[in-house]
Design a protein that fits this description.
The complex is a heterodimer.
Chain A (H helix, E strand, L loop, with lengths): L2 H28 L7 H19 L2 H25 L4 H20 L24 H6 L3 H19 L1 H11 L1 H6 L4 H27 L11 H11 L4 H24 L5 H21 L1 H7 L13
Helix pairs in contact in A: 1-6, 1-9, 1-10, 1-11, 2-3, 2-4, 2-9, 2-10, 3-4, 3-9, 6-7, 6-11, 10-11, 10-12, 11-12
Chain B lengths: L1 E6 L5 H25 L4 H10 L5 H26 L7 H12 L1 H5 L8 H27 L3 H21 L34 H18 L1 H11 L1 H6 L4 H28 L10 H11 L4 H25 L5 H21 E6 L4 H8 L7
Helix pairs in contact in B: 1-2, 1-14, 2-13, 3-8, 3-11, 3-12, 3-13, 4-6, 4-7, 4-11, 4-12, 6-7, 6-11, 8-9, 8-13, 12-13, 12-14, 13-14
The chains are: A mainly alpha, B mainly alpha.
């Protein structure tokens, strides 16, 4: 693998958890629910995936465990915000705090253990194409899944009846309810999907990106995923572009650190976070873009009238 | 079986007082179940977690040390949350306040004067407020989401502190440890009682809570905060500016978080280190909600959350469970608080599908919403 190819490969790897978590949250927000607990669901996915892989010896079982952990954790959020109509912002924060605490406890016995890495699945014939072959076709299951999910979500939201209903709920839950669309049930499903995706993102962190368990290893990626959804103005394809841009920034700063250019490493490590803020600022300057695409019922409480 | 909510005609006074207590009770029950599942005696574990730390003089001092920053930050956050501004970057403002306040004791470390402490406090408040001004200005001017920008700045602040104590501010006589010089005597926040650890940070916290309570209850500013928080439209009709409120709320909470930061560093630690907070800025969010966003309630809630920090340490030593349990308790507590707050505005009905009325609804799943 040449240097350029290696860098491209690592950009893809760094971006994959962001794509996974953000595409899930995109569906959640399109249904009018703001789940700020992505970081918590992601870290739960990471620790349970690692534990599952350790105990079973199979990374695939680990991925499944991560998915289930994220989904189960999101149900907590769903119950509070959808059934009990609790404040979505505060509940999302609670989910993150709880997730960071619980994952720390579960993961204590796994600290320092060598991880089980998710194997690479080469696409026969295509993975040998020069430069882009390995980058696009010599990846692991979760990478392919992340791309498939973006395609699937784009198709679902804009090409299916169910997707139309979901967007209608997100834009005006009162009218959707009056038309007989099951608002709360749909939102529960969306939240579950978001949780499963965040769980997969966590599994990627502890089985692919750095195959080991480190406390707080999500390091704000859940929050960056949330920012990506805003950056993408709730559109799947733009989200993919945004995630790779972020992957490039975080890998770029790592390489710059390794080259030992004169800037202290801490300042380089700030770059992904600063880039997130910069991107949010740039996107919010165009108020029209945000207003058109933002689901109008986002984070609004909904109690059905009977 | 199905849970349905029925809106109360007005908010329930009874439950707005009871809900934090119900939440605490539920947290204890959840804790007992957790300890049971870890194979510990739940009564013993809860005793070591929540009662034992209250039995000794030194641990009461420690409680005051931990409660001080929690209360200070949460009082500031209550103003933000009440006015519907979601500042969740208090941890970063805490760190930046500590850094700004430490300029004098680290850079001018030989200066001994009665002026040192007041100047440190003021510069810490300015530092915290200035750091909070970034997300505030971005929100007020450019409509940037303050939740994400304030949170991102936490990571930036932590990295900045890390760079300072490993780089330019590292103690030249410190054997390369990542620490600054120890603050000299005139830069140390005094203890409330001689020989105890509790420092004046707790006094600041209680004064801040009282003043904020007064502001919210008896001044036009307090009314403005409440009105803009509940309805921006109504606020505009009253001539209040939502944009100015964003700035006010953030500067206010940033200043208090900064004060908490320097109090912790100068009162409890005595120097800057790479990590100066066990997540006070985030735990304070729980404190604010447990105190029902009321400054006086926050004082009580701050003591409760401070107890979970101590309880975590105590439980680790005495019964050998991980001190991570404390974080778990804190998260669970916030969950239960938010769940119980539903009782203030809604009645909860549990319906069985067998009832005749809902049988029709069940036959038409399309029209059903839950």
């Amino acid at each position: 693998m040449g240097l350029f190819e290696a860098i491209l490969f690592s950009v893809m790897t760094a971006a994959t958890p962001l794509v996974l978590a953000a595409i899930g949250e995109l569906v959640v927000e399109r249904s009018g629910v703001l789940n700020l607990g992505v970081e918590g669901m992601m870290i739960m996915g990471a620790v349970v995936a690692f534990a599952g892989a350790q105990l079973s010896g199979s990374a695939f079982v680990g991925v499944l465990c991560g998915l289930l952990a994220g989904a189960a954790f999101s149900l907590l959020f769903g119950f509070l915000t959808l059934t009990l109509v609790a404040n979505q912002v505060a509940t999302g924060l609670a989910l993150t705090i709880l997730g960071l605490g619980l994952s720390g406890m579960i993961g204590e016995r796994f600290i320092g253990l060598p991880g089980v890495r998710l194997p690479v699945l080469n696409v026969p014939g295509l993975s040998d194409v020069p430069i882009v072959g390995r980058v696009l076709f010599g990846q692991d299951l979760l990478f392919y899944l992340s791309i498939a999910l973006v395609v699937g979500v784009a198709w679902f939201l804009f090409r299916t009846r169910a997707g139309l209903k979901l967007r209608a709920i997100g834009d005006n839950h009162g009218s959707a309810h009056a038309l007989g669309v099951p608002v709360i049930r749909t939102r529960y499903l969306a939240v579950l999907f978001g949780g499963a995706c965040a769980g997969l993102a966590g599994a990627h962190l502890s089985l692919v990106y750095t195959p080991q368990w480190v406390e707080n290893m999500s390091a704000g990626r859940g929050w960056i995923a949330l920012a990506l959804v805003v950056f993408a103005s709730w559109r799947p394809w733009r989200l993919l572009a945004g995630a790779y841009l972020f992957g490039a920034v975080s890998i770029g700063q790592l390489h710059a650190q390794a080259l030992g250019i004169g800037i202290p490493s801490q300042f380089m490590s700030m770059l992904p976070y600063l880039a997130t803020i910069l991107v949010l600022v740039l996107i919010s300057m165009d108020r029209r873009l945000t207003l058109i695409n933002r689901p109008a019922s986002l984070a609004q409480p909904f109690v059905p009238e009977r | 079986m199905r849970i349905e909510l029925e809106k109360r005609p007005e908010r329930s006074k009874l439950f707005s007082i009871l809900s934090p207590f119900i939440a605490l009770g539920l947290t204890l029950i959840a804790g007992a179940i957790l300890f049971l599942s870890l194979g510990k005696n739940p009564v013993e574990a809860l005793f070591f977690f929540f009662i034992d730390p209250l039995l000794y003089g030194w641990s009461l001092h420690e409680l005051a040390v931990k409660a001080a920053p929690l209360i200070l930050i949460a009082v500031g956050l209550s103003v933000c949350f009440r006015s519907n501004n979601w500042n969740i970057g208090a941890e970063g403002q805490f760190v930046m306040g500590a850094v700004a306040g430490s300029v004098i004791p680290v850079v001018f470390h030989e200066w001994q004067s009665l002026l040192v402490l007041p100047l440190m406090m003021i510069s810490a408040m300015l530092g915290g407020a200035a750091y909070a001004a970034i997300p505030a200005l971005l929100k007020a001017r450019l409509n940037t989401n303050e939740i994400l920008s304030s949170l991102m700045l936490v990571y930036v602040a932590q990295l900045f502190l890390d760079w300072l104590v490993r780089g330019p501010w590292r103690n030249p006589e410190g054997f390369n440890f990542p620490e600054t010089r120890n603050f000299n005597a005139s830069a140390i926040l005094p203890e409330i009682v001689d020989g105890g650890r509790a420092h004046f940070g707790l006094v600041f916290a209680i004064i801040a809570a009282l003043l904020t309570w007064f502001m919210m209850r008896h001044t036009l500013k307090g009314f403005e905060i409440a009105v803009l928080g509940q309805s921006q439209r109504a606020g505009r009709f009253a001539g209040f500016s939502a944009a100015r409120m964003v700035i006010f709320a953030f500067l206010f909470s940033g200043a208090l978080a900064g004060l908490a930061g320097i109090s912790e560093v100068s009162g409890a630690i005595g120097q800057l280190r790479p990590v100066i907070s066990p997540g006070y800025g985030f735990t304070a969010i729980i404190v604010a909600f447990l105190g029902r966003l009321n400054p006086l309630g926050i004082v009580a809630a701050g003591l409760v959350l401070a107890l979970t920090y101590l309880g975590g340490e105590a439980a680790q030593i005495s019964i050998g469970v991980s001190d991570k349990v404390a974080r778990l308790f804190q998260g669970a507590l916030l969950f239960f608080v938010l769940a119980c707050d539903t009782l203030i505005h809604y009645r909860i009905r549990i319906r069985r599908p067998a009832a005749a009325g809902s049988a029709i609804a069940d036959a038409r799943p399309q029209a059903e919403t839950n």
